[in-house]
Amino acid sequence: MYPLYGLLFADHGLSAAQISTLFIIWSTTAFLFEVPSGALADVFSRRKLLVLGALIGGSGYAAWIALPSYAGFAAGFVLWGISSALISGTFEAFVYDELAARGASDRYAGLIGRAKSSALVMNLAATALAAPLYQLGGYPLAGAVSVCSCLAQAAVALSLPEAPPVATTDETEEVEPGAGGGPLGRYLAMLRSGLSEAATSHVVRKAVALVALLGGFLAFDEYFPLLAREIGASTSLVPVLIAGTVAAQAIGGALAGPAYRLRGRLLAAGLGVSAGLLAWGALSGTAHGFVPIAIGYGVMQLVIIVAEARLQDAITGPARATVTSVSGLFAEVFAVAVYAGFALGSFWFALPALVAGLTVPLFLTALITPSALPPPAPHESSVREEGVDG
């Protein structure tokens, strides 16, 4: 449904402004659940939360097909927002602690990059299937297959191993006194611990802000299908154009491991180039404009994964998922601002101009990247065990 849902909404009579309000509902839901679900992942089974998130996400797709109206689309986005909140932060902390339990946390950037690239390759295959599925059975068939993919996601999550969250004895003792007895007390104590580290650690605070800004720029792709239609692409051609952006993201993610130790200035330059390519492609007025859009999106994906990996290395407390979710929360805040800007701007400007305008804050973010990006961690995992922060 990814390359088609914007068209699904439009084909059921929704305007660009109404579609933007759906995106706002989506991000607002994720915003409300982001940090609470992160603290939940620091107390309860992260694997089970990943399973639950997949099942809730599938129910959101089902709502779109069963109730193809503004209310049904809004309900689907609420479910999708809850699903995103449960998985965001939980997934990154899950992978990092699994590696740390094996003394291999320095492999995080390469592994998460390859994992997300693999996910994007599967996304690419799904995107390519959207056109023939639409031709065979319209939106209902595409939606049904999307629900099945969520069931498969839940099955894969259930099969994963799960080590206890990595925390030193001192860190555990710091959380326990405020627990007040019972799961609720420990949950609240873990929530306080994560929020405190995100607010008081200078390095973590800057990294959280940078990751949040970069994550917010992923709001670009929600408008790519509508942009493709704006330039005259047919419904069957739209998934092909979107597939190019997904393929570029996969390549960028795969290169995140080798790029992990690049200087902040070089990564910032890549973001600046991304901004220029995205603006150029959006304003080109032809399908060929999706070539620079794809390249820019791929470079941005590389920088995002590197920034996320360095944030994980900067976190030293026991509430890893909570801290990660704080960056996710502010990413949703920024995404809501982007959607609101599109909703208001659509009354005066065409969609290509709005997409190009969004590249201005991306370029400004590139300017602050060298100072906000934490340095890479040492190669040896044992350094972390000795208490030296990466």
How is this structure best described in words?
The protein is 78% helix and 0% strand. The protein is mostly helical and 390 residues long. The chain has one domain (5-376): Up-down Bundle (Growth Hormone, Chain: A), CATH 1.20.1250.20. Helix 3 (46-66) runs antiparallel to helix 4 and helix 13 runs antiparallel to helix 16 (351-372).
Q: Note the main sheet.
A: none
CATH architecture: Up-down Bundle
Q: At the third CATH level, what is the topology name?
A: Growth Hormone, Chain: A
List unreliable stretches of 5+ residues: 167-179, 380-390
What characteristic shape results from the CA principal axes?
A: globular
Q: Structural class, please?
A: mainly alpha
Radius of gyration: 20 Å
Count the beta strands: 0
The multimeric state of the shown protein is single chain
Helical stretch count?
17
Helix content: over 70%
CATH level 1 name: Mainly Alpha
- Supply the CATH superfamily name: MFS general substrate transporter like domains
The residue-averaged pLDDT reads: 82
Percentage of residues in DSSP E strands: under 5%
Give the N-terminus to C-terminus distance in angstroms.
40 Å
The helix/strand order is HHHHHHHHHHHHHHHHH
Overall tally of domains: 1
